[in-house]
Amino acid sequence: MIVNSRTVPAASAAGDPWRRMIRIDTVSGEIDAIADGISAYAPAKVVFAEGDSWLDKFTPVPQVGTNLLDAIRTPFHAAVVDVAHIGDTSVDVVTGWQAKRTRALFRFFDFNAIVLSVGANDLKNLYADRVEQMIAGGLSPQEIQSLLEPATYAADFERVVANIRAFVALRDGSPRGITRQAPIILNGYDYFQPRPARAAAFAGSAFGAGPWVYPVLQGAGLNAAQMKQAADAVIDRLNQSLADAFRASASVVVIDSRGVLTPARPGTTAEDGDWLDEIHPSAAGFDKLAGQRWSATLAGLLR
Predict the structure, then answer these.
(1) Average pLDDT for residues 164-189, to the nearest whole number?
(2) Which of 60, 148, 266, 281 could form a disulfide with 200 if both were Cys (CB 3.0 to 4.6 A apart)?
(3) Residues near 114 by Cβ (< 8 Å), separated by ≥ 6?
(4) Among the listed residues 66, 77, 67, the one whose alpha carbon sits nearest the alpha carbon of residue 112
C-alpha cells in the first residue's frame, strides 16, 4: 500500500486532541523496562519503531524534535517503543542481536503498528563504495553519467527490499495475534541536496559526522545540479522499489514523502531549507513530514 496523501492534520495545537506519542526508549530491548513503561503509562495503543536516525531521538543531543517519532501526532493515548539507532541499515535490523531483540519483543508485547525506517544508510554506504572504486580506477564521461542512473545499482535496491521482507517475516512469526497483524509503515524518505553540512552529535557543537554523500560526488567531479540529480534518482528508485514490492500488501504501508520538504541550497553548511544537515530534516521539516504524510496514516491504521 502506498500513501502520499496530504490530507493530514497539522501538529497539535493547544486544546487539539491530537497528541505526541509517549516514548519508551530502549536500545538493548530490556523486557522489564518496556513492561514497566507500558504499565506506568497505560497507553491505549502501542507502536514499535525500528531503524535509523530519522527515528532515533539522539540526532543531535539534546535537541528535541529532530526525528519523526517526536513529530508524529495521533488522537490516541499512544506509546512508542523506540529501538532505532543512528546509522542502522536494513541488514542490521534483521540480523544478529537486533533481530533476536525484535523477536523477543514481538513475543512479549502487543504492538498495534510498527514504524520502520531503513534503506538510506544501505544505499549511502553502497553508493559511496561504488563511486570511490570508480574514482580509483579513473572515471570516464560514461561512468560519471552512470552515477545519475540508479539502475546501475539494481541489486543493491533488491537487497534492501529483501531485508525488509525479512523484517516482515519477524512480525509474521510473532505468537501474539495483535502484533502479528500490526501494519508496518515504511519510510520512503524525501529528496535532499548533497552539500557540505555536517551532523552535530551535540547540538551547536563541532562534534559529529558527515557530510556523507557530498564528498563522494564532489570527488567524482559532479557539480551541485548533477549531485541533486543523482541523489533524487536514488530516492526515486528506492520509493519505486518499495512500491513495487509492497503495493499489493494490506499490512505494509509505504510513505512516499517526496516533494514535501524544501531542499537546502547547494553549498550551505548549516541548517537550511527544511534540512538540519545534509541528510537529516530539521524539526520544522519533520513537522511537515508528519503533518502531510505520517500522522493521519498512523492514526488511521491504529483505529
Answers:
(1) 98
(2) 60
(3) 47, 48, 49, 50, 171, 182, 183, 184, 185
(4) 77
